[in-house]
Amino acid sequence: MCGILGAALVTIPAGLILGVLGLRRTRQGRRGLVRCWLAIALALGWAGVTAYFLPHLVRAADPGCVAYKGTALTAYNRVVNDVNRGADRAVLARDVTAAIREINRARSDSRNAAASRSLGALSHGLQAMVTDVKAGVVVPSHVLLTLNHETGIADGACGTVHL
Questions:
Q1: CA distances from 135 to 43, 119, 139 (A)
Q2: Cα–Cα distance measured from residue 161 to residue 119, given in angstroms and rounded to the nearest whole number
Q3: Which site from 24, 60, 117, 125 is most exposed, i.e. has the minimal number of CB atoms within 10 Å?
Q4: Spatial contact of 26 and 33, defined as CB atoms under 8 Å apart
Q5: One digit per residue, pLDDT tens: the chain, 163 residues?
Q6: What are the two backbone dihedrals, phi and then psi, of residue 92, each rounded to the nearest 5 degrees?
Q7: Distance spanning both ends of the chain, measured CA to CA
Q8: Which helix (H) or strand (E) element contains residue 6?
Q9: Could you give the CA distance from residue 129 to residue 147 in angstroms, rounded to a whole number?
Q10: Surface-to-core class of residue 12, CB atoms within 10 Å of its CB (0-12 exposed, 13-18 middle, 19+ buried)
């Protein structure tokens, strides 16, 4: 039972201990060898899943990452939509400025150095973009590609899991 309930985390050690104790009992002629090995295998499987996801969850709990995945990413996605639909310069400049403000707020809230660095790089790229937009210059495609790359780095620093 503890092996099946391994997602509760506290049952992982119990599953391992009870599985090993059960193996000892099977040596004394009692049945249940398959169930003991199954309990151990499930507990180890849950331990592996936990070991993979726990660091992501810890990074995702960072206040800056919470802000990034909330308002800052929404503001950034609005900029992407503006670019894709060919929005007017004033609208694009307004939305890029809002995205910069939200990303900088997330960066200042962050206690995760990697997230803070990636959010800073994203903000810097958006600042270059808003300068071009306000000057009436077409934003170079490499700037847009760099921004997309930086959001991927920020996602990773903030524990976003891509399965």
A1: 60, 24, 10
A2: 18
A3: 24
A4: yes
A5: 555 555 566 778 888 888 888 888 888 877 888 888 888 888 888 888 777 766 656 556 688 888 888 899 899 999 999 998 989 999 999 999 999 999 999 999 998 888 899 999 999 999 999 999 999 988 888 888 999 999 988 888 887 654 5
A6: -65, -45
A7: 28
A8: none
A9: 9
A10: buried
Tokens representing residue 124 in the block: 């810097």
Please say whether the dihedral angle defined by the alpha carbons of residues 66, 114, 117 and 141, taken in this order, is positive or negative.
negative
Please state, in angstroms and rounded to a whole number, the distance separating the CA atoms of residues 67 and 63: 6
Give the residue among 44, 39, 69 at the shortest CA–CA distance from 158.
Answer: 69
Q: Give, in degrees to the nearest 5, the angle at Cα 121 between 96 and 143.
A: 60
- Phi/psi of residue 56, nearest 5 degrees: -65, -40
Domain layout of the chain by residue ranges: 6-57, 63-157
